[in-house]
Amino acid sequence: MATSLWFLGCVALAGCGDAGALDAAEPADTPDASTSAPELDASASARRDARVDKPTREIADAGAKLPDGALPHQPDAGPADAGSAGDSQGGERPGFQLIFRDEFDGPSGTLPDATKWVFETGGGGFGNNELEHYTARPENASLDGQGKLVITARAESFMGSKYTSARLKTAGKFEHAYGRYEARLRIPTGRGIWPAFWMLGADIGTTGWPACGEIDIMENIGSEPTLVHGTLHGPGYSGGNSIGKSVELPDKARFTDDFHEFAVEWEVDVVRWYMDGKLYQTRTPKDLPGKWVYDHPHFLLLNLAVGGQWPGNPDGTTVFPQQLTVDYVRVYERI
Ligand SMILES: [Ca+2]
């Protein structure tokens, strides 16, 4: 089946309370003024831009072979634990050296490690007509005491929004170029539910979006429980014109029923996407209608949006709360 995609868009960082240079960011340009973000109040920290179109894309075979010219993947270095059990002790990967990790070990109900993660808070739709208000409360993001981070979207009235959730980023804490970026996630499901694990260029505050670059490692809309998407957004290919591919599980199993590992391996002039250790997409500058903007540090984001142009809004079939559960986030450099 064809997929309908509005891809992750921009973040305009304005007036956020985070430490670091991003505080001074100007609101980023959006690819379509008719769908640009509303004016921000001073407390709102970020906006994604609008998805302005619904391109149809190929769905990858999860067992795809490494194409000619791609750098070698380590075929026996896949997820240390492909099942549903936790994997707090893993992380060794031949040919790579860990440079960032969070296994999310810690007492139940505590907030994620503030030396690694920054909460982005606020509502207003993030340019996508999203419905959630992101908070920094443990009700929306906290450890479960069993080695997992749980981001929870709740149906509740909060500062004018009907839903609350959380959005975490490593901006100002961990920003890096190249390497392998992976997370083991159990995603939620249901119409209007929109989890993502992604990266933005750390220069977004000065160059804006999409010139800063955006690499979406995993994105799903809850009405499509058997598909996830990997995408690049850059100048000339952003929003609905972004470059990406979708991938399914064998037998079209639902992603929400188990943990899966999502990764990119990002090198000079190439980004490769993996799902459970299997390559499903490779992009190089020749694939892009615009400039390759992935030669500078990016930061990571994890978020769980509710509603918006791409996923649509929750309806009577959508169950709340919904949870994005994160077993680990790890970043490696090649050695
Ligand atoms: Ca863990």
What are the main properties of this structure?
binds calcium ion, 335 residues, globular, 1 helix, mainly beta, Jelly Rolls, disordered N terminus, 35% strand
A few lines on this structure:
The chain has 335 residues and is mostly beta strands. It has one helix and 20 strands.
Oligomer: single chain
Distance between the termini: 40 Å
Overall pLDDT metric: 81
- Helical percent range? under 10%
Strand proportion: 35-45%
Query: What pattern of helices and strands is seen along the backbone?
Result: EEEEEEEEEEEEHEEEEEEEE
Return the CATH topology: Jelly Rolls
Sketch the major β-sheet.
10 strands, mixed
Structural class by secondary-structure content: mainly beta
Gross morphology is globular
Rg over CA atoms, rounded to whole Å, is 18 Å
Give the CATH architecture: Sandwich
Total count of strands: 20
| Bound ligands, named by name, code or SMILES | calcium ion
